[in-house]
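re: ur question from yesterday

yeah so i grabbed the chain u mentioned. its 254 aa long if i counted rite. heres the sequnce exactly as i have it in my notes:
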Amino acid sequence: MTPENHEAVSLYQQKDQGLSWDSRFRFHCHGGLPCFNRCCRTPTILLSPYDILRLKRFLGLTAREFLERYTRREIDEWSHLPLIFLDPFKTEEPGCPFLGVEGCTVYAHRPAACRLFPITMGSQMTEEGMVDHYFCRQLDYCRGFAGDREWTLESWIEDQVFEEYDEGRREWLEILLKRGLMGPGGVDAELQDLFALACYDLDQFRQDLSEWEFLEVAVPGVLETEDLVMDDLALLHFSYRYLQDLLLGDEKEG
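ran it thru and got these structure tokens back, copy pasting raw so excuse formatting
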């Protein structure tokens, strides 16, 4: 991954000047532009657990099938926990695996990073809690910025239905940020695999939760009021709470 691409999807506060909620910019991407789809040819798209949930459900795949077909896993250098990226090199021609002739074939369920573009986002933990920072990434070849549609950051986020996706990933992001502040110790390969299971492979996580031995060892008492045959979104939020207890301990309220 190039430094430029890594910065574009950084979980953490970037160094560029940020946007305020009422900052204005012009942008209109459409099929008539000569650069249409170019940004999808070599994407670096970080997928949150909620992104994966939406995409695998839409595609009619299990989480494991989705992960094996379309993604790669990397260890985050800050939190030392696994992150999942779309892999543009699992197709005959490098590019987003969901890019079709007329554009995105999963547009209604596209990931949060795609919804925000050309805005990028970084976050940091402060004494007041998690704070987000937004930036406008104007690629040299992109002609969308010459369009006649003007946005504020607030109106763009609303138009792209970003808040729903942000809500679905926020607890995951907070775990990554807080774990990163705790230093490199204490995250071994076994814990990384457990984090990946609970976040990214909900189908297998649900199956493991149904086994009494797992409950006794991993989450004693936690599931007394939980329904093990819960919907995916409820299970995802349960997995966040479980991982907060496991990874953060006393730090989770800090």
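noticed a couple things. Residues 3-169 form one domain. also The chain is about 40% helix and 15% strand.
anyway ttyl
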